Write a sequence for this structure.
Protein backbone atom coordinates (compact mmCIF):
# COMPACT_ATOMS: atom_id res chain seq x y z
CA UNK A 1 0.00 0.00 0.00
CA UNK A 2 1.21 3.50 -0.76
CA UNK A 3 -0.11 6.87 0.16
CA UNK A 4 0.89 10.50 -0.13
CA UNK A 5 0.78 12.34 3.16
CA UNK A 6 0.91 16.11 3.25
CA UNK A 7 0.94 16.24 7.06
CA UNK A 8 4.67 15.75 7.63
CA UNK A 9 4.38 15.65 11.43
CA UNK A 10 1.93 12.73 11.38
CA UNK A 11 3.95 10.93 8.70
CA UNK A 12 7.15 11.30 10.76
CA UNK A 13 5.41 9.94 13.88
CA UNK A 14 4.24 6.91 11.90
CA UNK A 15 7.76 6.33 10.56
CA UNK A 16 9.22 6.60 14.09
CA UNK A 17 6.57 4.17 15.36
CA UNK A 18 7.49 1.67 12.64
CA UNK A 19 4.04 1.76 11.09
CA UNK A 20 5.28 2.75 7.64
CA UNK A 21 8.40 3.51 5.67
CA UNK A 22 8.82 7.03 4.35
CA UNK A 23 9.98 8.17 0.95
CA UNK A 24 11.44 11.64 0.55
CA UNK A 25 14.24 13.55 -1.04
CA UNK A 26 17.81 13.01 0.14
CA UNK A 27 17.94 16.47 1.72
CA UNK A 28 14.61 15.87 3.47
CA UNK A 29 15.82 12.57 4.88
CA UNK A 30 19.10 14.15 5.93
CA UNK A 31 17.20 16.85 7.84
CA UNK A 32 15.03 14.19 9.48
CA UNK A 33 18.10 12.18 10.55
CA UNK A 34 19.78 15.34 11.89
CA UNK A 35 16.70 16.36 13.88
CA UNK A 36 16.25 12.85 15.31
CA UNK A 37 19.85 12.51 16.45
CA UNK A 38 19.93 16.07 17.83
CA UNK A 39 16.72 15.56 19.82
CA UNK A 40 17.16 11.98 21.09
CA UNK A 41 20.90 11.32 20.83
CA UNK A 42 20.43 8.19 18.73
CA UNK A 43 19.25 7.26 15.24
CA UNK A 44 15.53 6.54 15.43
CA UNK A 45 15.20 6.02 11.69
CA UNK A 46 17.63 4.81 9.06
CA UNK A 47 18.15 5.47 5.38
CA UNK A 48 18.43 2.72 2.81
CA UNK A 49 21.91 2.10 1.46
CA UNK A 50 20.96 2.82 -2.16
CA UNK A 51 18.75 5.59 -3.37
CA UNK A 52 15.39 4.64 -4.78
CA UNK A 53 15.30 6.92 -7.79
CA UNK A 54 19.00 7.27 -8.51
CA UNK A 55 20.02 10.55 -10.07
CA UNK A 56 16.88 12.53 -9.39
CA UNK A 57 17.42 15.88 -7.79
CA UNK A 58 15.87 19.26 -7.23
CA UNK A 59 15.47 21.52 -10.24
CA UNK A 60 14.54 25.06 -11.16
CA UNK A 61 11.94 25.81 -13.80
CA UNK A 62 12.39 28.45 -16.50
CA UNK A 63 10.15 29.69 -19.29
CA UNK A 64 10.98 28.23 -22.70
CA UNK A 65 13.83 30.16 -24.33
CA UNK A 66 14.76 32.02 -21.14
CA UNK A 67 18.20 33.71 -21.33
CA UNK A 68 18.68 32.98 -17.61
CA UNK A 69 18.76 29.19 -18.01
CA UNK A 70 22.33 28.85 -19.37
CA UNK A 71 23.67 31.34 -16.82
CA UNK A 72 21.99 29.62 -13.87
CA UNK A 73 23.00 26.16 -15.18
CA UNK A 74 26.63 27.29 -15.31
CA UNK A 75 26.47 28.70 -11.77
CA UNK A 76 24.83 25.59 -10.32
CA UNK A 77 27.25 23.28 -12.16
CA UNK A 78 30.18 25.22 -10.69
CA UNK A 79 28.73 25.10 -7.18
CA UNK A 80 28.12 21.35 -7.49
CA UNK A 81 31.49 20.49 -9.06
CA UNK A 82 33.44 22.44 -6.44
CA UNK A 83 31.46 20.74 -3.66
CA UNK A 84 29.97 23.96 -2.34
CA UNK A 85 26.37 22.70 -2.44
CA UNK A 86 27.23 19.53 -0.49
CA UNK A 87 29.37 21.53 1.93
CA UNK A 88 26.47 23.81 2.82
CA UNK A 89 24.03 20.89 3.07
CA UNK A 90 26.35 19.03 5.43
CA UNK A 91 27.01 22.19 7.47
CA UNK A 92 23.27 22.57 8.10
CA UNK A 93 22.79 18.93 9.18
CA UNK A 94 26.00 17.79 10.92
CA UNK A 95 24.34 15.21 13.19
CA UNK A 96 22.86 13.32 10.24
CA UNK A 97 26.26 11.75 9.55
CA UNK A 98 25.87 9.76 12.78
CA UNK A 99 22.90 7.98 11.20
CA UNK A 100 24.33 7.65 7.69
CA UNK A 101 27.29 5.47 8.61
CA UNK A 102 26.98 1.73 8.08
CA UNK A 103 27.96 0.95 11.66
CA UNK A 104 25.17 3.17 13.01
CA UNK A 105 22.65 1.31 10.88
CA UNK A 106 23.87 -2.21 11.54
CA UNK A 107 25.13 -1.94 15.12
CA UNK A 108 28.09 -4.09 16.07
CA UNK A 109 27.48 -6.73 13.40
CA UNK A 110 29.78 -4.94 10.94
CA UNK A 111 33.14 -6.73 10.67
CA UNK A 112 36.21 -4.61 11.21
CA UNK A 113 38.51 -3.93 8.30
CA UNK A 114 41.64 -6.06 8.16
CA UNK A 115 44.54 -6.49 5.77
CA UNK A 116 44.07 -9.07 3.02
CA UNK A 117 45.71 -12.46 3.54
CA UNK A 118 46.56 -15.30 1.17
CA UNK A 119 43.42 -17.22 2.14
CA UNK A 120 41.37 -14.33 0.74
CA UNK A 121 42.75 -15.11 -2.72
CA UNK A 122 42.35 -18.92 -2.70
CA UNK A 123 39.14 -18.72 -4.72
CA UNK A 124 40.73 -16.50 -7.36
CA UNK A 125 43.81 -18.72 -7.52
CA UNK A 126 41.72 -21.88 -7.89
CA UNK A 127 39.74 -20.33 -10.76
CA UNK A 128 42.98 -19.30 -12.45
CA UNK A 129 44.52 -22.76 -11.98
CA UNK A 130 41.34 -24.45 -13.25
CA UNK A 131 41.40 -22.24 -16.35
CA UNK A 132 45.05 -23.09 -17.03
CA UNK A 133 44.35 -26.84 -16.62
CA UNK A 134 41.29 -26.65 -18.90
CA UNK A 135 43.21 -24.68 -21.54
CA UNK A 136 46.13 -27.16 -21.38
CA UNK A 137 43.80 -30.16 -21.76
CA UNK A 138 42.09 -28.49 -24.71
CA UNK A 139 45.44 -27.76 -26.32
CA UNK A 140 46.65 -31.35 -25.90
CA UNK A 141 43.36 -32.75 -27.30
CA UNK A 142 43.64 -30.46 -30.34
CA UNK A 143 47.22 -31.61 -30.93
CA UNK A 144 46.21 -35.28 -30.70
CA UNK A 145 43.20 -34.88 -33.00
CA UNK A 146 45.22 -32.98 -35.60
CA UNK A 147 47.63 -35.93 -35.96
Amino acid sequence: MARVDTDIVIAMKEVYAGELAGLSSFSGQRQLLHDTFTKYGYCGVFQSADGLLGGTSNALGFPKGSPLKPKIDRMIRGLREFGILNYHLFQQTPNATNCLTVSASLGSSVPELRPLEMKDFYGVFSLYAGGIVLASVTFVVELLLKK
